[in-house]
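Handoff note, outgoing to incoming analyst
You'll be picking up this chain. Sequence as last confirmed:
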Amino acid sequence: MTTSDHSTSATRPRPGGRSARVRYAVHRAVTELLAEDAAENLTIPVIAARAGVHATTVYRRWGSVPELLGDIASSRFSGDVVVPDTGSLRGDLERWVSQFATDLADPDVLKLMRAAVGTGPLGCDACVADRHTQLAAILDRERARGGDPPSLDRTADLLLGPLYYRAVFINRPAGPDWARDLVAGLLG
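Most recent structure output, in case you need it:
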């Protein structure tokens, strides 16, 4: 191998590897710990012990429990809800909201969401960023079809707000029918 061959292969990212294994083990450990106990009891040493890694590894990669929860929430809440294309804004939003309501009904999702939201703005952003991106895509598609959809802020306020409120704060996740009624309220 020539020197240039060596430097090229050394700079290529490796799929998987130790870093991916550590990330997976730590994410899994947090998920398991949240299922067993309250988020307030999460500490880096406890997480590291469960994951089978040294606490300094976790501190070096994430820095704090809130940063770790933000990373897990970003990973978990990105791409799980498929942006539908039914041919109409109402159909797209109804299907999307129903899928999202179903996701919020999962107890493990709720535990992670509550823990992430409890960490402050970083965790909150991790929980909603991808949902806003998905809604923006639905609204942009409607504009491309020649429609005049509501703004992203209004759509998020009237669809996401009630769903998150019911799931996170009053522990009454919305069913798909109730979620579709939200779309009717938005679109009139």
